[in-house]
Amino acid sequence: MKTQIEKIINVRLSLIALSLLALTACGGGGDGDGASPTPAAVTPTATTTTTTTTDPELAPDPTSLDDLVVDADNALEASYQLTINVDKSNQSRGYFSLCDDYTAQGGSYSVNFDSCLFRGPLSDGKLNKELKIANHESQLIAVIWYYEGQNPQYVEWSYMADSESQILTMD
pLDDT tens digits for 34-77? Predict the structure, then answer.
């Protein structure tokens, strides 16, 4: 009798040992709270790069943000204010569009009107508007469409880096 009880106990102990071994081999529940090897502490080394080049063509290409050199006059702004002044003396009803996707074809233009940054009606032939434009938008086209069937009027506008204020005027 004693041997049969010993066999049952040994089988149960063996099953428990195998279960614990399997759990240990699988790594447990994987909730991230388990002990994991900690990486060795690494002390970053400071590198100092001194660039005194003022000619942008002679400056080396930056390989990290630490290597970037920004001109002192760069305001580091992502946009600029564009003032739109339209003053048509003919008082015709019109609609103004300011777009960035266009091509010039001889004396005419092909404009993607889905790319417009602003659209709005003229009021008594006038429109005065301040717009915030992203810096990468440096070439724009302004179009005035007239309701009375006149041909549209196009004006190409370019960002002027040396100007303190950006103004688009259509008379």
Answer: 555 555 555 555 555 555 555 656 666 768 878 778 777 766 77
Contact between 76 and 129 under an 8 Å Cβ cutoff? The reply is: no
125: Cβ contacts below 8 Å, ≥ 6 apart = 86, 87, 88, 89, 90, 91, 92, 94
Distance separating alpha carbons of residues 31 and 96, to the nearest angstrom: 60
**pLDDT tens, residue by residue, 72-90:** 776 677 899 999 999 987 7
Q: In what order do the strands lie in the sheet with 126-134?
A: 126-134, 79-87, 166-170
Inter-residue contact 168 to 84 (CB < 8 Å):
yes
Q: How far apart are CA 153 and CA 118, in angstroms?
A: 16
Sequence-distant (6+) residues with CB within 8 A of 152 are 143, 144, 145, 146
**pTM score:** 0.56
Q: Which residues contact 127 (CB under 8 A, 6 or more apart)?
A: 84, 85, 86, 96, 120, 121
Give CA 168 to chain center in angstroms.
26
